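Table 4 source record.
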Amino acid sequence: MVALVILIFVDAVDAGSPLPGAVAQAAQEALGADVTVTTRRLDAAAPLAALVDKGRDDHATMIARITWMDEKRSNARLEVAATDGTFTRTSTVSFGAADPVAERGRALGLVLAALLAPEKQERLERARAAQATAPPAVAVANAPPPPQPERRLALDAAVEGGFAVGGAGSNVGGALGLRWHPARRIALRVGGQARFGEVARAQSTATDLAVAAGVAVFAIAPSNERRLALGLRADALLLYQALAHLSDDDAAPVRSARLLPGAMLLAEAQWAVSPTLALALAGGSEIAFGTTDVYVHQDKVAELAPFRLIVQGGLIARF
């Protein structure tokens, strides 16, 4: 970083002598490598304000003018001013008649450096303080957004309806499941479900409970980059079917239940409403591997259908 840019105006008589180069070299060496010093020939007398304007046009931060106060050129006047109007200094340097022109220039350069050294240090300290307190706005603005974490676990909850085909046993309830994604397109699932209904011919209330374990395979996998996911879900079931019958001639409800295996196959669609939450809709079928006949007073009055159409609607939370 260049701290100061100094433009020195010298008399036209001195322009072709060693004096300008000696002034510039001495000032440069004394002030350091972060200072730029150049000289300019001054053909006619001009007010200091006019030289400041010229320096500003040349993008200088400081201007200096060297003028001789007598015909013998033994007394030099050195004027220094900042182009932003914040700094002015003046000094007079006397020389002997035998002093070489180059030595005179070197002495003037050292005096110029002594006048500007405090100003240079103050400007450097202000620049460091401003840099230390400034927020890294550009770095933050240009930084890429952090990647979203990959979520492998999900919890699903749904309202569920089962519609019996070819028999009794339609019911409604809910399902709850936990999923783990070992890969983006595959999810392993365990869960449970409960549905409740009636068997009118047997004057009975029906309860269907099940535990499930299965797998979901996605044609369009859940992702942070898209909202839609589509897949197939297959579950193995252990079903618990129970009936409770109460009639006028029974003192207490008569209950009967049985366990049997089953399976469920559903097509599932998900629509993400946030990176962690999605709406889910599924539809398919459930089959019980066995038939259940319903008897009342040793008379068969109904049969629980082994096949049901299933509809689910709910939410999936990913974490």
